[in-house]
Design brief:
Layout: E1 18-19, E2 22-23, E3 26-30, E4 34-40, E5 46-52, H1 54-57, H2 60-74, E6 84-88, E7 95-99, H3 106-113, H4 118-137, E8 150-153, E9 156-159, H5 165-168, H6 172-175, H7 188-191, H8 198-214, H9 224-233
Antiparallel strand pairs: 1-2, 3-4, 4-5, 5-7, 6-7, 8-9
Helix pairs in contact: 4-8
Length: 239
Amino acid sequence: MSHTTEVFRPLQADDPAVVAGFRLAARLGAGGMGVVYLSHTQGGRPVAIKVVRPELADDPDFRRRFGREIKAARRVRGAYTAELIDGDADGEPPWLATLYVPGPSLAEAVARRGPLPVSAVLWLMAGVAEALQAIHEAGVVHRDLKPSNVLLAVDGPRVIDFGIAVAADGTAYTATGGTIGTPSFMAPEQASGLEVTAATDVFALGQTAAFAALGRPLYGEGSAISVLYRIVHSEPDLS
């Protein structure tokens, strides 16, 4: 697939060459949790290696929660998820590896081509809903389902990064304004700091479907505070 080459970035001077025996080949992206690299298993399967950023790695509570989430994520098996291969919360740095999914994210696809046709939205959401089912059956709540965590492979969508946002909640890093969850796709109870359950993911599924159909977030753009306020206090325009 030709478009996959667009996502590879060369390694930078301060990037590690090897993490836990995985030789890193390229950068795939960076986010609130750390940097994601392309690598391969010894058998040649491409994997995405997420390396946790130092601010989070320095927090022992984060490592404990990250370890718990890796353990939970290992139980998730579903056709529409990117399977966890391995991970180590006690590593220097902490890391995890999932199967690499060639294809753009839903966020990238919409940025490039605009809203998806209705038939594509329905096909896509059926797959994402099935992925959520597998995640919830393993006792995991995704907590950060959003268009950039839905990858569009040739044979259907893949949901990535399930359960990992919980590890960073309440760390010094998030307390100082580093956000992990994405305000535009949060559920009202999450935005209010209340208990997060499987229902939270279902709300995010609806928002992700709306984004695919509209080409923009259901609750609009702007600062995190104003978006969160609208999610908690206003009804979205579903016309």
